[in-house]
Amino acid sequence: MRKSFRLDEIDCATCALKLEDSIRRLDGVDDAKVNFMTQKLTLTAADERFAEVLERVVALVAKVEPDCEIVR
C-alpha cells in the first residue's frame, strides 16, 4: 500500500532528506519519499502491516524532527 501524508513544520531540504533516510531504514518500510517543497511524505509498506509501520514512522518523525508532524 502506498499513501501520502502532509508534513507540518519541515524546515529545510536537509531535514527532509534526514527524515526520508531514517524512515527508509525502519523495518516494514518498502519505500519512503519526503518532498520538502510540497511538505509531503509518501510511504509504501505491506497492506497487512501498514498501520503498524505508520505508527512507528510517526514516532520516528517526532524523535528525529520534534517540530514536524504527520497530518493524517
In short:
The protein is of the alpha+beta class and about 70 residues long. The protein has helices spanning about 15-25, 50-65; strands spanning about 1-10, 30-35, 40-45, 70.
Question: How would you portray this structure in words?
Answer:
Strands 2-3-1-4 form a four-stranded antiparallel sheet. Strand 2 and strand 3 form a beta hairpin. The two termini are 15 Å apart. The mean pLDDT is 96. 19% of the residues are buried. The protein is built from two helices and four strands. The protein is globular and about 30 Å long. It is 38% helix and 32% strand. The chain is α+β, with helices and mostly antiparallel strands and 72 residues long. The chain has a single domain, classed as Alpha-Beta Plaits (2-Layer Sandwich).
What features would you highlight for this structure?
single chain, 72 residues, alpha+beta, Alpha-Beta Plaits, four-stranded antiparallel sheet, 2 helices
CATH architecture: 2-Layer Sandwich
In the sheet with the most strands, the strands line up as 2-3-1-4
In sequence order, what are the helices and strands, one letter per element? EHEEHE
Largest sheet: 4 strands, antiparallel
CATH topology: Alpha-Beta Plaits
What is the CATH C level class, in words? Alpha Beta
User: Which structural category fits the helices and strands?
Assistant: alpha+beta
Helix content: 25-40%
Number of helices: 2
Overall shape: it is globular
Mean pLDDT: 96
In what range is the share of β-strand residues? 25-35%
Assembly state (oligomeric): single chain
Total beta strand runs: 4
